[in-house]
Amino acid sequence: MPIYKLLWSARVYDVSSPTPSCEHQKSLNPSPASYSVRFVKENIMSQESTQQRISAWAVTGIGEIVPGDQLGDVIVEACRNAPNGPLQDGDVLVVTQKIVSKAEGRMVEIDPDDPLSHKVLVEQEGVRVVRRRGDLIITETEHGFICANSGIDLSNVERGWAALLPVDSDRSARRIRDIIRAKLGVSVGIIVSDTFGRPWRKGLTDVAIGVAGVAAVLDLRGTPDALGRMMQVTEVCIADEVACAAELVMGKSNGVPVAVVRGLDPLWMRESSMREIVRPPQEDLFR
Amino acid sequence: MPIYKLLWSARVYDVSSPTPSCEHQKSLNPSPASYSVRFVKENIMSQESTQQRISAWAVTGIGEIVPGDQLGDVIVEACRNAPNGPLQDGDVLVVTQKIVSKAEGRMVEIDPDDPLSHKVLVEQEGVRVVRRRGDLIITETEHGFICANSGIDLSNVERGWAALLPVDSDRSARRIRDIIRAKLGVSVGIIVSDTFGRPWRKGLTDVAIGVAGVAAVLDLRGTPDALGRMMQVTEVCIADEVACAAELVMGKSNGVPVAVVRGLDPLWMRESSMREIVRPPQEDLFR
Q1: Domain span at residue B82?
Q2: Across the interface, do A206 and B241 touch by the CB < 8 Å criterion?
Q3: CA angle A237, A240, A244 (to 5 degrees)
Q4: Which of A155, A252, A285 sits opposite B229 (nearest CB)?
Q5: How close does chain A come to B165, measured CA to CA in Å?
Q6: How much is the ipTM here?
Q7: For the segment A42-84, what is each residue's pLDDT rounded down to a tens digit?
Q8: In terms of domains, do B91 and B137 share one?
Q9: Which of B148, B165, B182 is the last residue of a domain?
Q10: Which of A26, A211, A273 to mutate to test the interface with B (most CBs of B within 10 A)?
């Protein structure tokens, strides 16, 4: 059975292509893709030689982060040697929002005994309340994220403090990526991750809120499936999937704020931004 | 810095516990948890010895699946030897919905030149239309999933055929798990995965639609964070996160229908079902 190996030509922007018909898509919303894809068909002789394999591990030994810390430097020091490193070209580092917010001074003092002081902050950080029930507030942030409490975080921060979302997590990711490239000489991707709920399904999952050096969304339009038919699934959010893989090793309670994911398709490594993920309101059926 | 290591006591059901306040949660909906958690605090001497690490790989060499195939047997044969196996206790195998539907004969003939024949099927398989725009239909299925086209799939199936969702993917997962245990003597978890869209964010991600032998949702209530405060995030959907990790190695176009994820917390291995994930309508703010 021939295997179709994809060559992502992510830099070939094709803004002129029409929005595809949604008849055969599983996407929840029609959306024009932001970049196009070329593919090459290769008849792989041995399946074994092409088996895809990834690994992910928690970066240990990162201490408490305080405002002013340069996260890139902290990560460089933690990843110089085993077991966290050395890093390789194509590794993707997932960094939790919490330490990005701390390093960038996005900490706000609140009265820990007054729930109202938290609530005021939530409304201040949201541009729109999407749903409200009891104490729960779902808001849209100025980044375009829709999440509980405007993404404001009270766990893993000192009592009396709240962590706001970074102002621009793409920029935060790029800064970390650039420092790692400068100091360790490797080209890595960075995903800033946070933990969001979602409609219809219980349990939270990690998602990307900032990206650098790794694709956020892959566009598979024009790609044949294994039977040579056009793909039904046309856009895959690999940044969210990598954030999920990383969460499995970071856990929620032990405060490990960085993980490395190794073995991703090298063709996914490219410039990117959260604009690939945030769905414009006019394309969204659920606001 | 002491690390808090969690001991999931997943069998201790605690249906009497009240729904937690949502004030400090990031969950999009209040929801009583289905099981409780005990934890033990351990002062780990060396962080390095506890570094969490997972790996995931695509299972190669699985041929075309046809109705009547026993998937457990197919996977057992594929995973007996390297590079796919041998399997170990605690491995989680992610199996795509497509081959489960094929093996279970959930294939329906449609007129490939008449989009209407697909549309009729979509409405037939949905219990409710949630949103409709142009050709796109978001429905709720009888499983309680909310997804495009009632989860009906046209890619990677022969032209003129559509794959319906399995009737009971938990049961499908249990059957595969039981065959692997019987024939290979290892206890693995099984996740049946599908690719769903979601509101607000572009790009699709893989999710669990059936589980066996591995937790679907972890409940972290009562668990302290790294600073000793109560956790803000209380429920994590690890089944969806594992499905995402697997998707990164399976890809969408090369038709690899099974992946192995190794290295997950052994304490996550327990009986489970999709009832942990599907949010009851009365708890949902987005229907």
Answers
A1: 51-99+167-287
A2: yes
A3: 140
A4: A155
A5: 13
A6: 0.84
A7: 333 333 346 789 999 999 999 999 999 999 999 999 999 999 9
A8: no
A9: B165
A10: A26
